[in-house]
């Protein structure tokens, strides 16, 4: 029986200690609440006192100037109208954007580098037009991945998560991974080599200019405007280069326009100064001058043989006579062994 009484006494002491702790916590909470209420009341009193002082000052001002309240009300209404007018102007300035449905094009992936470069250019134009924040560009662009590109993006996110790498949140970093994956090997070097070796050849100026502009977008070059014009002119045919050297164009558009004009002028048949007939074109591409009948007759070999002039016939030496003479009959033209006598 004594051990049982001891356990009961221990449990009683524990309950008493717990009750004492709860009572102390309650007193502390009550004290904190009372202090908070007192501080709140003091702050309210101070605030009300400040408001009373402001009202007294306003009453004094109204007594001095009876139109003060009306002026304050008119100023307040003016500010409200001005704010409403600014909001209305902002809405009108943004209203034109509601008529455009611009979406980011889909990207399927693949091994053609030109498709990726063109897609990146289109995406950047849309992001700039929509003013998409930097932290929202990657999630927005990733929603337009399809096919191979969608599988690649899912695998890339999974592999980075498994290796403990941070997710891709920068658009520049996403472009870097896209170029590493979907551009062919040595793509940049190949595009630069094509730009360096670009020549017009037998193509028209428009076809040459189109490829020139495309290769400019494929290469990251830092040439000045004058250097670009020189690069463009250097790929034209020599005849066009010589013609453009007389004008010294300062922009690509001017060089392109003048080259097209010279090309069209070269295709138009030119007129000579002796008559209204155009000059004929030789097989080598150079125009031939018209010849008179005498020049044609004298230059043609058949004319010289079939129609000899009197001077040529008089200058022709007489035919030679045979030097053989017969010793039997004394007649020329045969030998003694063949003499008919």
TrEMBL record:
Pfam families, per database record: Retrotrans_gag, zf-CCHC
Keywords: Metal-binding, Zinc, Zinc-finger
Residue stretches of biased makeup (Polar residues): 265-275
CCHC-type domain location: 325-341
UniProt-listed Gene3D superfamilies: Zinc finger, CCHC-type
Presence of keyword Ligase: no
One term of GO molecular function: zinc ion binding
Ranges where the record places region Disordered: 263-341
Protein name according to UniProt: CCHC-type domain-containing protein
């Amino acid at each position: 029986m004594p051990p049982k009484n001891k356990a009961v006494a221990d449990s009683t002491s524990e309950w008493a200690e717990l009750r004492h702790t709860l009572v102390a916590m309650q007193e502390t909470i009550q004290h904190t609440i009372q202090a908070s209420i007192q501080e709140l009341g003091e702050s309210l009193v101070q605030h009300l006192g400040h408001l009373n002082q402001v009202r007294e000052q306003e009453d004094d001002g109204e007594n001095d100037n009876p139109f003060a309240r009306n002026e304050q009300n008119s100023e307040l209404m003016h500010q409200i109208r001005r704010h409403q007018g600014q909001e209305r102007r902002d809405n009108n300035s943004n209203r034109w954007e509601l008529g455009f449905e611009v979406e980011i094009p889909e990207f399927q992936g693949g091994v053609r580098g030109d498709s990726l470069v063109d897609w990146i250019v289109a995406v950047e134009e849309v992001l700039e037009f929509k003013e998409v924040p930097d932290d929202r560009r990657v999630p927005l662009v990733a929603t337009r991945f399809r096919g191979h590109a969608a599988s690649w993006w899912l695998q890339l996110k999974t592999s980075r998560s498994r290796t403990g790498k941070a997710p891709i949140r920068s658009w520049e970093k996403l472009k870097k991974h896209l170029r590493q994956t979907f551009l062919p090997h040595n793509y940049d070097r190949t595009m630069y080599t094509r730009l360096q070796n670009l020549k017009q050849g037998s193509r028209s100026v428009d076809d040459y200019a189109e490829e020139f502009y495309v290769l400019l977008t494929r290469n990251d070059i830092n040439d000045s405007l004058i250097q670009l014009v020189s690069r463009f002119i250097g790929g034209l045919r020599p005849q066009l280069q010589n013609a453009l050297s007389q004008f010294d164009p300062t922009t690509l558009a001017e060089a392109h326009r003048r080259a097209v004009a010279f090309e069209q002028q070269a295709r138009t048949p030119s007129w000579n100064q002796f008559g209204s007939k155009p000059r004929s074109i030789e097989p080598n591409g150079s125009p031939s001058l018209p010849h008179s009948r005498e020049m044609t007759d004298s230059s043609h070999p058949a004319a010289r043989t079939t129609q000899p002039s009197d001077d040529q016939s008089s200058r022709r030496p007489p035919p030679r006579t045979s030097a053989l003479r017969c010793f039997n009959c004394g007649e020329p033209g045969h030998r003694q062994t063949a003499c008919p006598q």
